[in-house]
Structure formats: structure tokens, C-alpha cells
Structure prediction request, 471 residues.
Amino acid sequence: MLMPGFDRFPSLAGVITVPSDKSITHRAILFGSLAEGESFVQAHSIGRDNLASVRVMQQLGVEIYGYFSGSARQMAEEEKLTDIEDSSSSPLALNSDGDCLLVIRGRGLQGLKAASDILDCGNSGTTSRLLCGILAGCLFSTTITGDRSLVKRPFARVSQPLALMGAKFSADYLPITVTGAELRGLVWKSEKASAQVKSAILLAGLFTDQGVTVCEPGLSRDHSERMLQAMGCPIVEETTEDGQHTVILPEATVPRRLNPLQITVPGDFSSACFFLAAASIVPNSRLCIENVGLNLSRTGFLDVSRRMGADIQLLERRIVGGEEVGDLLVKSNVLAGVEVSHEDVIFSIDEIPVLALQAAFSQGITVIRGAQELRVKESDRLAMMAGMLRLAGIEVEEFVDGMNVTGNRSLLGSGVALPTGEWLESHDHRIIMCGALLNFFLTGRVECYLPEVVETSFPGFYDLLTSLVAE
Ligand code: S3P
Prediction:
């Protein structure tokens, strides 16, 4: 049933791009810093998390020059990056606002220098956990810390395996002092599918001739494996029928080295999902999102949304920088509730909040299970989403590992704004964007909550949404 005034609700139409993939950009910065020679990383609109990776590698003695256009430059200055270059002298054209080029003078695997200060990773779990893997192999001590969210997130998941390889960790929560050592090899069976844990162990493995093996209960995102291979480092992978995934960095017969990278980072699928959901839900929408990374270990949201009835077409699939990329065309449709399993969660770990939001405007009940890991992300994302949806009048039953969301399409365009609450206080970028979208679904208006927090992963989010609504 449509509410009065619904015919005037703005639809979403146009062709858009989203910021570059945060996970791939982190890896390009960290791995490029360990390479022998100069790496070039071309990206569009990277967020504050990625700038934290640049800053900490600069503190460890890596020269990283950043050419930033427009708003990206302002953010780089706010994040106190050194070596911000004049974009007009960039060796590659920076075409649109937010573009950036990072030139990384890799110092090789033995070349990092002890930092004179604590390394502040801000909000970034990926920077801090992957950094643990690197610092484990550096023969000095370094203290890492982070913001009020990161200091509450568990680090035993990386410190335990890295300690078995020989490194020392002063605590299980930040701030942590990591003391590196001559490392030994490891065979590690992870309880969870976690790309941060897998990548930290692989990075530490680069510092020993002995082999490392990581077994995980399902395939977590595999950007590290792809990038290491592209840099000349052999990786062996096996997946058994029951979904168990094993990654091996074999014993080295000659000293390990990484070749420098030249990479154009595709758009972030996790960021694209906000607009896939928005255009699916808002009637009469037709949106094309160009140049989106479609690595199969990331696109669980597509599978679940299609099961819900979403009309999302893949227009052109191609390979860029060793990763699958495509353009996605999404048209609105009435969606129906589905069951989201633990396996779905592995492939959509960062998109579960958006799926819960999408479920709220679908017909029937969506059952999400096996998502306990969301409780230790930038915030307790299950609690934040359950609370937020209830504030909007949606029926939610919360479980330790998920929730049941009873869709209520009659709330679309109801005109009642989303009340503020814990979701806003969470300062969690993805939760804040979900709140902004939910408020948009309710009122048809764009309210710009905490734009500097949203810039953690999605600079320009509000401008993009506003521009679509205005058209
Ligand atoms: C990431 C891995 C995931 C994801 C995070 C980014 C990465 O975390 O949630 O946003 O880039 O490796 P886990 O490894 O903890 O699942």
C-alpha cells in the first residue's frame, strides 16, 4: 500500500561511480611499501581508513607521495599526510574530484625503520591487523593504537598465530606493542573466515623462508592472495568440497622479494551496495553503477538480493588489476524476505547492515543467522541495526547471531523522520550510511549525518545521494 504523497517520492536514476575499493587500496599501500621499487596506485576517492595506512607506512620510513584532486586533497591534509604533491604535476591525469595517485617507494622486506612515535590506525581494523603481520617480522618494537572503536576490537585473533611464529604482543587489545623477531613457519587453522587474519599471517610469512599455511572454514576475501601473486610471490590455494579453504605460502628456496605494483583500483562493491539497495527499494528507480569490483568472495549481497527479487544486471564483466570488474544496472522491484545463512554472511560480511535495511522494506520476514562476527566490527552492527530499524517502527527480533526482520513497505514515504539514537552515537561509517538511507526511505529527504565519519569509507556519499534525488 502506498502512503499519501508517495507519488511525489523521488526516484533514483543516473549513472554513478563509487570510491575505490578500501580493502584492495589498503593492500596496495602496505604491500607496495614492502616491494623493491616504485609502485603506482591509481584510485578514485579513497577514504580516511586508507589514508591511515599511508600515514603509518610513512611513519615506518616509506616515502609515499600522494597526488590528490579537489576534496581528496583536503582530506589528506586533515589526516596530516606528509608528501602531498601538487596534483597538476601528477604523472597520471586526475580527472574528477576525489581522484588520487599514490606513488610508493617500497623499501623491500628488510627496509622498514622503527617509528619515532605510536602508530595511530584511526578507525581502521584492516590497517592495524595487517600491520601486526608486518611488524611481527621487523626487528624492532612498535606501539599501535586506534580510535575509541578500534581499541575495543579483539586482536588475539592475529596476535595468537603471530606469537606462534615468534613475535611478541603486549596485549590483546590496542594499544599494543609489537616486538618483531626472526620468524618461523606456521600451519594455522582459523576458527572464522577472516581475511584480516589470513592476510596478517601471509604478510608475516613473507619474512621467513619457512612456509605458512592458513586454513579457514570458508573463503574470506582473497585480495591479498591475488596481489601477492601479481607481485611475483607464489601462493597455492585449495578448496575442499565442504567449503574449507587453504592458502599456502610455500617454503622459499631463494630470499623472498615483492615486485612493485601498478594498479588501478576498482570501485568498492561494499559502497555500491548502499545504492543497489536504494534503487531496488525506491519505486521507478533505474541506476547504473560503473566500474565496480566483483570479486566473488565479496558479492554475496548480489546473490541474496537477487533471491529477494532484486533486478540487478551485470552489464560488462572485465578484469582490471587481477580483479573482476563490471557495471551494474539496478531497477526497482518489490522484494521478498529470504533466509540469509552463515555462508551468505561470509561473502557479504560488511553488507549485512544494508541487507537488514533492504529487508525492512521487503514483503515478509528475512531471517539472518550465523552473523555473530558483526558484533565485533566498528560497532556491534547487529545491535545497531536492530535498534535503528525498531526506531523506524520495523519489527525486529534479535538473536545472538542474527535477527528476523519483518518487512513493512507501508513505511516507505510515510514522512516520519528516523529518530536519532545509539546508531548515530556508534560513529560507525556503515551504520551511519544505513541510517541516512533509512531516513531517506521514510521521508524522501537526505539528512547528512556525521559526514566526516562517513568519509572513513565513502567520501562524497551525501553529495552522490543528493545529486540523484535532485535529478
Ligand atoms: C577486511 C576484512 C573483513 C571486513 C573488513 C575488511 C579486509 O574483516 O569486515 O571490513 O580488508 O581484509 P574480517 O577479516 O575481520 O572478517
Summary: Confidence is low (pLDDT under 50) at residues 1-5. Residues 23, 26, 126, 194-196, 199, 220-221, 349-350 surround shikimate-3-phosphate (CB under 6 Å).
